[in-house]
Amino acid sequence: MNNQPRGRIRSLSSLKRRKKKKKQITNFSQRPINLSDLLAKVSSRGPVNMAGQNARLNVVPTVTMLGVMKARLVGATRGHALLKKKSDALTVQFRALLKKIVTAKESMGDMMKTSSFALTEVKYVAGENVKHVVLENVKEATLKVRSRQENIAGVKLPKFDHFSEGETKNDLTGLARGGQQVQACRVAYVKAIEVLVELASLQTSFLTLDEAIKTTNRRVNALENVVKPKIENTLSYIKGELDELEREDFFRLKKIQGYKRREVERQAANAKAFAEEMVLEGISMQRGISINAARNLLEGGAEKDADIIF
């Protein structure tokens, strides 16, 4: 073993480490993933904050801004209530349109079936060349469609109305045979066109109303989940800051009052001490004057006694 070169020993050890590492990677890749554990790890991170949660407007906490935020909250609440009522009204109209569309589609199927049978009868009775006669007689359409708008809860819905204009020319149609079947076919197709126009109006209004409901619901959700929480958080922030300022002012006033009270007490104590000192000084001065006067009297009497001659 000692005779083996060192490079071979190192290469064998590195090869063993590589095999071990590769085996660990393989075992990790083959390990099954537990979905419940993954969801538990994600949920353990805590709830995800929505757009309006814990968010506020960047404002200065003043009393004026508090009034502005209160006014904005009132406006947002009123707008939310109006948009909610509008959404409810549009939803009711949407459901009514849906019922009308279902009814119109059912009647359209019956009308188109009746019209197809009537056309088949005309072709059977009058022959295949009857369509050329009809096209030669018709120069301009007598059935026309006009559009208008209907306002429902602030949403303009398009409406289509059919009307007849001009006279229907049936000079040579069904002259030889099949005149009655041609007229019945015309009547059937006129009714089918009326149903088709009504269905087109209902479906166009349906799509417009659907888009308006989506837009209104987006606005309602934005006001409810973003705008109002932001304003409410801003109001809470301003109230908290104003309360903190009020507490600071109260503490400052208490400190100033305590300082003034201590200053007044100190001045009163100094005045009292000064008064006592003045009283003591006055008493001491009076005592000093009386002692000096007695001393002067004794000294003056001795001198006068010395001047007496008998």
UniProtKB/TrEMBL annotation:
It comes from the Eukaryota. Keywords: Ion transport, Transport. Signal peptide: none annotated. InterPro entries: V_ATPase_D. Pfam families: ATP-synt_D. One of its GO terms (molecular function) is proton-transporting ATPase activity, rotational mechanism. Belongs to the V-ATPase D subunit family. NCBIfam families: V_ATPase_subD. This is V-type proton ATPase subunit D isoform X2. The lineage of its organism: Eukaryota, Viridiplantae, Streptophyta, Embryophyta, Tracheophyta. The gene is LOC108818321.
